[in-house]
Design a protein that fits this description.
Helix content is 29%, strand content 0%. The chain is an all-alpha fold. It has one domain: Erythroid Transcription Factor GATA-1, Chain A (2-Layer Sandwich), CATH 3.30.50.10. The longest helix is centred in the middle third of the chain and has 13 residues. The chain binds zinc ion.
Length: 59
Amino acid sequence: MTKCPMCKRPVRWEGNAYRPFCSERCQTRDLGNWATDRYTVPVENTPEIDEAEEAPAEE
Ligand SMILES: [Zn+2]
């Protein structure tokens, strides 16, 4: 079973326009992390916070 890289929930692959994410929200959050390193989408279920520690803080 494929899991969403964002929320680790099982991803429905068929008819999913947001794969490998489970939803548009997770996809947007991932792109937001790369682009701005901050969230612009309301976060309801906060994933592992320690992911942020793995990202290099160059700015
Ligand atoms: Zn997800």
